[in-house]
Amino acid sequence: MERLQKVIASSGVCSRRKAEELIKNGKVKVDGKIVTEMGFKVNHKNVVEVDGIKIEPEEKEYYLLNKPRGVVSTVCDDKGRKTVVDLIETDKRIYPIGRLDYDTTGLLLLTNDGAFANAFMHPKYEIDKVYVAKVKGIVKAKHVIPLQNGVVIDGKKTSKAKVKIRKTDLKTNTSMVEIIIHEGYNHQVKKMFEAVGLEVLKLKRERVAFLTLKGVASGKYRKLNAKELKQLYDVINHKK
Ligand code: URA
């Protein structure tokens, strides 16, 4: 059972706020009867009509984008900057699942499936997010160990992370570090490195669950296929 305004909005007809207005104004019928009650719940068997037109559930779409730098991970930006949604050609109302910073590159999923997006972002499902950070300085065990055990950022301790030094370069005084986390706090990776005294110069997300950027150039995208979706649902259902 879902709230009527949510069902109308997720059919792609209009926003949730507009749906509430339509309900209030007596424009919405459920099984032939006008409903003006805001919390009214319906299931997939109920026939919902808006202005006399039956609504159908919007077809769900799932995209994997290789996000370039200089693009915001929102649907629309109040400063007029390019968004990740601008990079994808679709008439569906898709949005990013979580976010990557303006200057972070790499794998970002987008969808119009709210239930899937919420499940996917929940840390309890322990979905691997694999980042590679270019860090200023030479990273050593004294940095790696606290990162692995969890560090305090914004008053919260992060969960255990898998951390591996991929490369250190004495000439440029930089290191490449792989870090695998399950959570998705704001600027989490940069703040984790900052907590151990290191500055992130570049950040890329290389993998989410089993999905990689293979075959998807920067700024390009592809749809997830049915097999991948099933595998993702298997990951979620397995951890329930
Ligand atoms: N952690 C960050 O600091 N930035 C991102 O974009 C993603 C994870």
Radius of gyration: 21 Å
Shape, per Cα inertia axes: elongated
Which CATH first-tier class of the largest domain would you pick?
A: Alpha Beta
Number of domains: 3
Order of helices and strands: EHHEEEEEEEEHEHEEEEHEEEH
Number of helices: 6
Terminal residue distance: 20 Å
- CATH homologous superfamily label of the largest domain: Alpha-L RNA-binding motif
Query: Which percent range describes the beta-strand content?
Result: 25-35%
Structural class: alpha+beta
Amount of helix: 10-25%
Give the low-pLDDT segments. none
Total count of strands: 17
Could you please say which CATH topology of the largest domain applies here? Alpha-Beta Plaits
The description of the largest β-sheet is: 9 strands, mixed
Calculate the mean pLDDT score and round it.
Answer: 94
Small molecules bound in the structure, each named once? uracil
Instruction: Provide the CATH architecture of the largest domain.
Output: 2-Layer Sandwich
Summary of the model, kept short:
Helices cover 22% and strands 30% of the residues.
Question: How does the SSE layout of this entry go?
Answer:
Blueprint: E1 2-3, H1 4-10, H2 16-24, E2 28-30, E3 33-34, E4 41-42, E5 48-50, E6 53-54, E7 62-67, E8 95-96, E9 105-111, H3 114-121, E10 129-136, H4 141-149, E11 152-153, E12 156-157, E13 162-169, E14 174-181, H5 188-195, E15 199-208, E16 211-212, E17 221-223, H6 226-238
Parallel strand pairs: 9-15
Antiparallel strand pairs: 1-4, 2-3, 2-5, 5-6, 7-9, 7-17, 8-9, 10-14, 10-15, 11-12, 13-14, 15-16
The structure holds uracil.
